[in-house]
Design brief:
Blueprint lengths: L18 E5 L6 H11 L6 E3 L18 H13 L3 E4 L3 H9 L4 E4 L1 H4 L2 H11 L6 E4 L6 H13 L5 E5 L17 H9 L5 E3 L1 H5 L5 H10 L4 E5 L17 H10 L10 H41 L7 H17 L4 H23 L1 H4 L7
Helix pairs in contact: 1-2, 5-6, 11-13, 12-13
The structure holds phosphoenolpyruvate and manganese (II) ion.
Length: 369
């Protein structure tokens, strides 16, 4: 389905580009929330965030201050004239936020992964066109993310933002949540109308990577950033390792290089066009070569079948990996990239040959290879 969204200028809150959302992971006390907001007031922050109900992975961690925190958010709003946003995970949270005039709601990663919870929130919001930010689900499942966005849109919500906060992985990586940039890029390709925010805090899990990930998001044409800020990050009751002070946020924002998504300069555009034409030709050559390679794969499959030889000869596969990656190195190509590409090509070759080997068996049976 297509999304029905209002253009940003029709939203009740102003969204500059880049759109900056900041505030603590959790509201801890009125004093803490107000102090963070006072630090952020001079910066170009367009939305103040904090969690009131915290979805913690394990019980016993700080689970948020609850409804009282909504009053503190109202105080931020009236003192600093910044719109405010709070995470909601069920209909009760929605009702409490609406009662306290919270400007924007957000759906967290754990909630976005649960269609029952998302539907409950959508039902509670039926007929109320409040802006809602939808984080990606914790697992790298683009359809689940799109499903959450569609549920909101079906309930009549036309002011929606997608928030990329990375995906959890079992193994340790340098990120707390792996960015898998191809997922938000694919969401944006399918739904160019939805504004995309990056949450570098939850991707990085630590402060050292924040600048780089924020810059990367902007270079990928994201519309904004959500960055957790605290007056005393080390003492924060949640996500202490990834929060920064307002001053540090100011420096981060100042160091960002803002680039245009396009240009009206015709000389630049025509040089770009020329280079893109060469890329188009190179891609066409790649496709022709791949098609020729696959034709040969089929011939080999037939030959192996007639001579009763297995599809895979591990020494041959090893030879391909070694020669192709070392040739890649000489050509200044990433060995890692070339290995991945050849693994995919090899998988497809095996699939084709498996089909050829079993063609007769398949006839008249239900088996599809
Ligand atoms: C948060 O923003 O504080 C939060 C809980 O994020 P996520 O849902 O991305 O884990
Ligand atoms: Mn957090």
């Amino acid at each position: 389905m297509r999304l029905t969204l209002d253009p940003l200028h029709q939203w009740p809150i102003g969204l500059g580009k880049p759109f900056i959302i900041a505030g603590p992971c959790s509201a801890e006390s009125e004093d803490q929330v107000m102090k963070v907001a006072s630090g952020l007031a001079p910066l170009n922050v367009q939305l103040f965030r904090s969690g009131i109900w915290k979805p913690r992975t394990r019980p016993g961690a700080f689970e948020g201050v609850g409804e009282i925190g909504l009053k503190w958010m109202q105080a931020v709003k009236s003192t600093y004239l910044i719109p405010v946003t709070v995470e909601v995970a069920n209909a009760h949270h929605v009702e409490a936020c609406l009662k306290h005039n919270i400007d924007v709601l957000w759906i967290g990663a754990r909630t976005a992964a649960n269609p029952f919870a998302v539907q409950e929130i959508a039902d509670a919001l039926q007929g109320i066109n409040i802006p809602v930010m939808i984080k990606n689900p914790i697992n790298p499942d683009l359809d689940l993310w799109i499903g959450a966005i569609e549920r909101m849109n079906n309930a009549g919500l036309t002011r929606l933002l997608a928030v990329h906060r990375g995906f959890s992985a079992y193994e340790n990586t340098k990120y707390r949540n792996k960015p898998n940039w191809e997922i938000p890029i694919e969401l944006k390709r399918r739904y160019p109308e939805i504004p995309m925010i990056c949450d570098p805090s939850h991707i990085c899990g630590k402060t050292t990577l924040l600048q780089r990930v924020s810059q990367k998001a902007l270079d990928l044409n994201f519309d904004g950033l959500m960055i957790e800020t605290h007056t005393d990050p080390k003492q924060a009751l949640s996500d202490a390792q990834q929060q920064i002070t307002a001053e540090e946020l100011g420096n981060l924002l100042q160091n960002l290089v803002l680039r245009e998504s396009t240009t009206s300069n015709s000389t630049i555009l025509s040089s770009l066009e020329e280079l893109r034409n060469i890329i188009d030709e190179a891609d066409e050559t790649l496709l022709k070569l791949l098609s020729r390679r696959m034709d040969i794969v089929e011939k080999i499959g037939q030959f192996k079948k007639e001579n009763n030889i297995t599809i895979l000869q591990p020494e041959r596969w090893n030879e391909i990996v070694v020669t192709r990656t070392s040739s890649a190195k000489q050509k200044d190509l990433s060995e890692d990239l070339i290995l991945k590409i050849f693994q995919l090509i090899h998988q497809e070759s095996i699939r084709k040959q498996t089909h050829i080997m079993n063609r007769e068996k398949e006839e008249g049976s239900e088996i599809k290879w």
